[in-house]
Amino acid sequence: MHVYDGIDDKLAGWLDSQPVFFVATAPLAADGHVNVSPKGMTGTFVVFDQHRVGYLDYYGSGSETIAHLRENGRITLMFAAFTGRTNIVRLYGTGRIVLTQDPEFESLRAAFPKQRVTAQRAIVMVDLDRVSDSCGYAVPLMDFVAHREVLDLHQEKRGPEPYREYPETKNATSIDGLPALGDLGERTREPASGDPAARG
Fold first, then answer.
1. Whose CA is closest to 69, among 98, 44, 104, 48?
2. CATH 1.10.10.10 holds for 2-189
């Protein structure tokens, strides 16, 4: 295992080249549910500096990460090499949610290469306090075929209108009953849509 001072250019390039990463959060309650979510789609993860990263967050069936971050902020991102030299990198830190109506959303969103967006609900920003790697010897070798377009195509077909109800319905609370988006009012009513470069 190696603990880094932060994310240097070489590591940033490696992180950016991985087609998938995993996000883990948990509530404070001893009987609460730990959540792990896979994240993909090129252009949705950005290294802002040595100690700060972010990823794009879209409307979906759950809101565990948002609820956990609002309660305690703890988050870990894990990247694993499925091709080439074995490696696992974990980014530990404190996360926060920047919603589409928040003042800093537009400036942060401009840093992400991905332009297609119909139902983006937030950017997850993470201030890192530990960056480390481990061997990854047991991680299998797998061939990457392509990024799926299912999420983009599905959301574009539906349009932004159905997602305006998600904060009070599907994304209101976590499965443990922690507040997610349901109590945030107008800050959640307008999902991002169209070309981000044209919205500012």
1. 98
2. no
